[in-house]
Amino acid sequence: MKKFEKLTSQVVPLPIENIDTDQIIPARFLKATTREGFGDNLFRDWRFDSNNQPKADFVMNNPTYRGKILVAGKNFGCGSSREHAAWAIQDYGFDVVISSFFADIFKGNALNNGVLPIQVTDEFLQQIFNVVFANPQASLTVDLEAQTVRIDETGESYTFEINPYKKSCLINGYDDIDFILSHKHLIEEFEKNR
Amino acid sequence: MGKTLVEKIWDAHVVKREEGFPDILYIDTHLIHEVTSPQAFDGLRKRGLPVFRPQQTVATADHNVPTLNQHLPIQEELSRYQVDMLTKNTKEFGIELYGLGHPYQGIVHVIGPELGITQPGKTMVCGDSHTSTHGAFGAIAFGIGTSQVEQVFATQCLLQQKPKTMKIEVNGKLAKGVGAKDIILYIISKISAAGGTGYFVEYAGSAIRSLSMEGRMTICNMSIEMGARGGLIAPDQTTFDYVYGREFAPKGEEWDKALAYWKTLYSDEDAQFDAVLEYDAADIQPMITYGTNPGMGIGITEPIPATTAQPESERPSYEKALNYMGFQDSEPLLGKPVDYVFIGSCTNSRIEDLREVASFVQGKKKAEGVEVWIVPGSKQVEAQAKKEGIDKIFEEAGFMLREPGCSACLGMNEDKIPAGKYCVSTSNRNFEGRQGPNARTMLASPLTAAAAAVTGRIVDVRELLN
Ligand code: SF4
């Protein structure tokens, strides 16, 4: 997994609540036997019409909005436990998702795949939307070490929570596998001593 | 303070424990199948890693295999592709595969125990939620997601938070016609489909002790249906006798050593559980579900509970469930006509289940208009049934004995219950659409299912037993 550096980026705003995993990646794309390519189908039915033509009014098809940060309404990622939702977001190129609430399983899946879910208050979320809609070029700065997200234009900053183990994984570019493998000698020792 | 059985096994498998971090838990056995493994193999390739301990990994094809004509190429394209991928991946990474055509092939949770791979004191995982089945032997066994499958491939370990523990005691004697499936459906109906969330459940008490290994597997199998991570039963002579002599069971001196250890596997008298529940076996009658989650079960002679008896916030979903099933609240299920009977799945497809059904239907015929599918859990179960002449009994009764697989348990292959039809099923989930779009599932024991097959209705099997 790549290391999570301090990140300053424009954002893609999606002010919709209860975005479920079926919207993030529709079930018909789950038959694949690899993890790649899910980004092409991220928000498939919002992005494309039935003739596979991009829908002009969807924010991801609007070149004004771009960046590595997705900002979405409350209760993001509810629905099924499919890990494909996190794969799709990561594969599309988002490193951070900001919302005022995340479904539990999605949060875990995102962290396991190197995507940082940041939970902020409803008010702070609204501030982000306000600033970004007024100026699409506005950027946010995410500092994982300090656990802060800042609206660069206004200088307002929010301190978020994260599990210390997961934080160290992201900062060091470890995922669970890298973490366990860094203790490989202990595993081998354990096997010898049984 | 003493330890619970879960703590004893857990602690014996902790490779590293550090404050603020999840435990690194060593996994003895990893079972895999065609549906949840491909992305995990893919992940390994991307990282350039081998499978760390391929000899501790066993593969089978079960979820979407056809249950007729298994000697022919699989018709359905996606299923064939996934099964082919499994063959290719297991070959590339050096993993033993009991695929289609192999005498050991079958549902992953049926073949583990019957091959002696499942043993007391082990940690076992599989990318399938009903891995809890193996807990019947006094093992810690639970289902995992695809990222975790990759984790176990790469390291033979999992990062895990130690779970909370719950003890469920069932004491007393079961009435005739009442079995393990009725016990577990009864428990889930009492504590609800979410009542076990976050716990590992240990089943205890004289009624549990009196069960065969097959019955214990049925109980542990459905732990997940109350939301529990897993379920287990302390091993005893019944367990040791079952494991002894099986293909991968320890032999000779190894056996003696293993047995001595297995005898230490019980919850200490003074062990503390986070929750304890107790039930009386005498209160349990044959059970059946009327709704769309496994917690919606009743005794066969009871009426469907009234909507007004439900908490107000739950009434809309309760009504939706009854509506889906085509039932009225407060009406009895007894006498309702049945279209399909499915006897199979990792809950009830073992040789004992088939024997029980056969001895009940011997000399009887299935009712007109009912379709009866019997899907053995494995090639070995199928062979044993044929050896004992059980297949003949089924044939005479008009039951169809098919080939092993998950089949109508989840309808991933062709075995689907048609829309609107009623199926009495020995499987474990009655979710909307589980057995096919708009199929209506009623979960019950093999005996109750067999009684529905020969009468064409929901009946109290106790009245048909002499
Ligand atoms: S029989 Fe059903 S529950 Fe069991 S492993 Fe197969 S699909 Fe899962």
TrEMBL record, chain A:
Family to which this protein belongs: Belongs to the LeuD family. LeuD type 1 subfamily.
GO molecular function: 3-isopropylmalate dehydratase activity
Function: Catalyzes the isomerization between 2-isopropylmalate and 3-isopropylmalate, via the formation of 2-isopropylmaleate.
Taxonomic path: Bacteria, Pseudomonadati, Bacteroidota, Sphingobacteriia, Sphingobacteriales
Annotated catalysed reactions: (2R,3S)-3-isopropylmalate = (2S)-2-isopropylmalate
Pathway(s) where this gene product acts: Amino-acid biosynthesis; L-leucine biosynthesis; L-leucine from 3-methyl-2-oxobutanoate: step 2/4
Assembly with partners or alone: Heterodimer of LeuC and LeuD.
InterPro entries per the UniProt record, alphabetical: 3-IsopropMal_deHydase_ssu, Aconitase/3IPM_dehydase_swvl, AconitaseA/IPMdHydase_ssu_swvl, IPMI_Swivel, LeuD
Protein name: 3-isopropylmalate dehydratase small subunit
Keyword set, alphabetical order: Amino-acid biosynthesis, Branched-chain amino acid biosynthesis, Leucine biosynthesis, Lyase
Biological process annotations from GO: L-leucine biosynthetic process
Short name of any one Pfam family annotated for the protein: Aconitase_C
UniProt xrefs under SUPFAM superfamilies: LeuD/IlvD-like
Domain Aconitase A/isopropylmalate dehydratase small subunit swivel: 1-122
One GO cellular component, as annotated: 3-isopropylmalate dehydratase complex
Enzyme Commission code: 4.2.1.33
UniProtKB/TrEMBL annotation, chain B:
KW Heme (keyword) present: no
Cofactor note: Binds 1 [4Fe-4S] cluster per subunit.
Catalytic reaction equation(s): (2R,3S)-3-isopropylmalate = (2S)-2-isopropylmalate
UniProt-listed Enzyme Commission number(s): 4.2.1.33
Matching InterPro entries: 3-IsopropMal_deHydase_lsu, Acnase/IPM_dHydase_lsu_aba_1/3, Acoase/IPM_deHydtase_lsu_aba, Aconitase_4Fe-4S_BS, Aconitase_4Fe-4S_dom, IPM_dehydratase_rel_enz, IPMI_cat
Pathway: Amino-acid biosynthesis; L-leucine biosynthesis; L-leucine from 3-methyl-2-oxobutanoate: step 2/4
Positions bound to [4Fe-4S] cluster: C346, C406, C409
Keyword Cytoplasm carried by entry: no
PANTHER family listed in its UniProt record: 3-ISOPROPYLMALATE DEHYDRATASE (PTHR43822:SF9), HOMOACONITASE, MITOCHONDRIAL-RELATED (PTHR43822)
Summary of subunit composition and partner proteins: Heterodimer of LeuC and LeuD.
Protein purpose: Catalyzes the isomerization between 2-isopropylmalate and 3-isopropylmalate, via the formation of 2-isopropylmaleate.
Family, per entry: Belongs to the aconitase/IPM isomerase family. LeuC type 1 subfamily.
UniProt name for this protein: 3-isopropylmalate dehydratase large subunit
Organism name: Sphingobacterium allocomposti
Lineage: Bacteria, Pseudomonadati, Bacteroidota, Sphingobacteriia, Sphingobacteriales
Gene that encodes it: leuC
